[in-house]
Design a protein that fits this description.
The structure is a homodimer. By secondary structure, the first copy, chain A, is α/β, with parallel strands linked by helices. Chain A is built from 16 helices and 31 strands. In chain A, strands 1, 2, 3, 4, 5, 14, 15, 16 and 17 form a 9-stranded mixed sheet that branches. In chain A, strands 18, 19, 22, 23, 24, 25, 26, 27 and 31 form a 9-stranded mixed sheet that branches.
């Protein structure tokens, strides 16, 4: 038997040579038939060699009727939002049963361009998690903010040609798609025949017809059941998104029917370390879907067969001969929670813990020290020009904001934060190229009564963003962030209350995720102490700079009226 | 409005320019949502520009609540079996609502190789039918028969690279696939990432595990519900086949459930002109599925969305913005029968008739005159060597035969046909390269009491095949076929009773399909007059040479024991 060529999986499938591993007495979740099937699972060379009886193997495990589903797939995630490097992200999600994530590295791409994308690819090698990268389509998202890098259609085509990416990540410039903008259209054309993910919040009717006709194939920005049903009917895969800060699952579960569920996947988009370590990932969405009343096998298909079809990942998403042996093993079909997880036929996690943690990669110097501001450009005072100002109104658990005109609070000729009315100062300071650009505005909904918070995580340009009550606190928070090479901080007056260094591109820590979570908890406690009523003011703040999600946002170039897709003035007519 | 660039579909989708055509008041069969949706369908540049209200167009049609489904897809067909060239095949199926066929040109490929494949591609241009060719994987099917051509893995890769084919057609050499045969494996590797169709009759259990692990993705040779369920559970798409001579629909309809139907498509494989003109194509399978109790939208999906997914034909299979405007319009959801058919936004058929028939193409001389035999090799007498012979037992409406040993009927030292026992002489004569090879055997089940039939359609090598009672009739039938440059004939003694010339590769007529059907009816009448009890002895005969379908078959090289996958002797021990 030793003369078996290692490539000869078929002779093992035929039962002529012993396999590497047999999992006996499995209750297989068969995503093709939609049924539970009691069988042995025969594994060799990291793949499923066979199903059924009559095989032998070097190692045998009796699963004692445990359920075995295909390893789960998160259909859309930004790993950078975990504030950790891919190995630490994997440490959190693999024990949950997630064996593949379709990741859009557009956070690091906005800081470091193609170099950042390639770093994420390299940092994802040899993990017990398959990280499938998509090409960030919107770097920068618009010309209304200053990113650290630009990725052209040619740059993205190079990433596709060399196998770094599998498709085009969320095309967020939906007005560009709909209008047939040359640059966006060139990117879509470059990715013809590959999966092209969309991002089209509140795009309906005729605009939706154009968005779909342009060649986009999915959407994860549905905020109402009607919107999701319309998009699904027009041919978009619906990736139901349950992020830490943008929760659509409860709203959208009611649209799922046996007749349409094949067009639906689950994704997490952006989750904090705490969320990943406590709630989990798409495994949590499956449990909630089942609790809502969705058939368990149908729920599991939304994280297995469906995304494997949408993303042309036909080597996984099901347990079948020739597919990779990525397995999610659990005991209760009504509450699937991973007891064991296999990746490529190897047991990689058990009872919620990863078995062989992978160390973080070496980070090249060019990805450190990315946070540099030109202090002479930082002017935090806002001189009165009109009595009315446009205020960003943050809405709890939403990325969309309201755009309200309010009376300014004035002192000594300057517009001031007014904690009593929950109006705080917000600033975005360019931090990639020391241009000195600095946008200033005001925001409602964060609740700070004193102090300030700041961070270098600010979607998608990732400039330095800060919200605070007074300039001294704001400056203290900014300096705390900069001295760490990027990160998050909370300050009050000249005192730093808490900080989390994120030296990798100003986005990610090089520390273990549990440690990052602990630091993050301290930040949240500090913000709470300052008066914040939000569950997570840092994540909320990081989306106040995202100029592609309505209604009013702020970048280093100033306030953005997203509905008009144009920069706008702070001062307004009353 | 005249300055609209022709490429700018999006501005029509946005409603800013009038479309070419609007179909108002359609009851759209939405294959994504699984629901019927009342809407206008907006068409421009041959595509769906938009769905919904508020659009204008140069031409408007009120559908008065007719149902509109995506144009139907036949997932697997050999056009050559219609005995007509592609334009005439289209004349038959397009009025039925079929707008795409996935065609395996392996009949002509076995006669004329890549030249034949390219001819079929050229003959399918500019039709109201989209003909998607797959690369014939088994030319020749085995080395137990003599084809006119050989297609190597490199030949097939060339066809893929130049866009002639979309994937690899039915891999019939299933023993080769399962054993990891180098030649078959090379073909499968060359088509990695494309759809690879299978053909694995009665392959189960361990053999099936190996067949799937090798990379094959579908099967259309399921003869029992259990076989189909097992294959589906192992990851194969099930293409339910209802051919003129191999009918699996009634047997397999019971396996279809809402949970597995996404993995099921319908196909016709081989249908005669009469079958196409009377029963129809996959449209007939849809009606029968609905009558059986399958939900109509689910039935329609098996000929639209499902095959579009399996074959990566994401530009069709659904009515959605950006997809081709191929439409199947009918009035009764319980009995969908095409009233109108659109291809690429153009009305191409109405009330069962094609509107603008496309003329047959010019046929190059190299594809004519392909039928040449070496008369000196034709020895129809069979001298007695043993008293027992192996007899091919034909089973009505089956491609599989039985392999029975019987007493020979002997006269003057020769084995004779014995019509009283329904034992007839069968011969296959090599007709591509004048090698003089001639296989002789005996067959039961055709029922001729006198005379003979002959033809140059003999799957898949398409040598000259003949079945008859006496040598004179057999020679008359052979000569009738050869004098027509290939075709079918029935004869009695020295009289030709009926004949159908098939001068294109000895497989296809260059005449209109209605005329072909009429000739064919005359052949059937002649065969009946000779005593045949079979519905279609010519089609039945054409599969008696197919050495990959069990149990006993015959080629120009002699009898083939398909279960042993080897040539065998006519004479047996009793």
């Amino acid at each position: 038997m030793n003369d078996l060529p290692s490539s000869d999986l078929l002779s093992i499938s035929r039962g002529e040579y012993p396999a590497d591993l047999i999992l006996r007495n499995a209750r297989l979740v068969n995503v093709f038939s939609g049924q539970i099937e009691t069988t042995d699972i025969v594994i060799a060379q990291g793949k499923i060699a066979a199903l059924g009886a009559g095989y032998t193997a070097a190692e045998e495990v009796d699963l004692q009727n445990a359920y075995v589903a295909p390893g789960l797939i998160d259909a859309h995630v930004h790993i950078e939002s975990s504030l950790c490097l891919p190995p630490q992200f994997a440490t959190a999600v693999v024990p949950r049963g997630i064996t593949t994530v379709v990741a859009d590295p557009h956070e690091i791409a906005n800081v470091s361009g193609a170099q950042g994308v390639r770093f994420m690819a390299e940092a994802s090698c040899d993990l017990p998690l398959r990280v499938e990268l998509m090409a960030p389509s919107c770097v920068p998202a618009t010309n209304m903010a200053s990113s650290g890098a630009t990725l052209t259609a040619d740059d993205l085509a190079t990433l596709l040609a060399d196998g770094t990416v599998r498709g085009l990540a969320e095309v967020m410039n939906f007005p560009g798609v709909i209008s047939g903008n040359g640059d966006v259209t060139a990117k879509i054309r470059a990715f013809a025949g590959t999966p092209i993910d969309g991002h089209a919040p509140a795009v309906r009717d005729k605009q939706l017809n154009a968005y779909v006709a342009a060649g986009v194939g999915s959407d994860h920005e549905c905020f109402t059941p009607e919107e999701a049903q319309e998009k699904l009917s027009r041919g978009l895969y619906i990736l139901i998104r349950e992020a830490t800060n943008a929760k659509n699952l409860d709203t959208l579960l009611p649209i799922i029917t046996p007749a349409n569920s094949r067009r639906i996947c689950f994704c997490t988009d952006d989750r904090t370390p705490a969320d990943l370590l406590t709630a989990g990932s798409v495994d949590d969405m499956i449990r909630r879907a089942i609790a809502f009343g969705i058939d368990p096998i149908e729920a599991i298909r939304m994280c297995t067969l469906n995304p494997s079809e949408w993303f042309n990942m036909h080597d996984r998403g099901a347990i079948a001969p020739g597919r990779v042996a990525d397995l999610f093993i659990f005991d209760d079909l009504q509450i699937p929670a991973a007891r064991q997880v296999y990746t490529a036929g190897k047991l990689v996690a058990q009872d919620g813990a990863i078995i062989d943690p992978v160390p973080n990669p070496l980070v090249p110097d060019t990805l450190k020290g990315t946070c540099k501001i030109k202090w002479s450009g930082v002017r935090l005072d806002v001189g009165l020009r009109k009595r009315h100002i446009r205020v960003i109104v943050h809405l709890a658990n939403q990325l969309v904001t309201e755009n309200k005109v309010m009376n300014a609070t004035v002192r000594a000729g300057n517009i001031m934060a007014d904690p009593q009315r929950d109006i705080l100062k917000i600033a975005v300071i360019e931090r990639h190229n020391e241009t000195g650009r600095c946008g200033i505005g005001f925001i409602q909904g964060f609740g700070l009564q004193e102090g300030a918070i700041a961070g270098t995580v600010a979607h998608d340009h990732h400039n330095l963003i800060t919200i605070g009550v007074d300039n001294v606190s704001i400056l203290t928070a900014i300096k705390a962030v900069l001295s760490a090479g990027g990160g998050l901080a909370a300050a009050n007056g000249q005192q730093i209350l808490a900080s989390l260094p994120l030296p990798v591109a100003g986005l990610m820590s090089d520390r273990p995720i549990a440690e990052v979570k602990k630091n993050y908890d301290q930040l949240l406690a500090a913000a709470k102490q300052l008066g914040s009523k939000l569950e997570d003011p840092f994540m909320a703040m990081s989306f106040m700079g995202l100029e592609v999600i309505p209604s009013l946002k702020i970048t280093d170039r100033g306030l953005v009226d997203v509905n008009a897709f144009a920069l706008t003035e702070l001062f307004a007519n009353g």
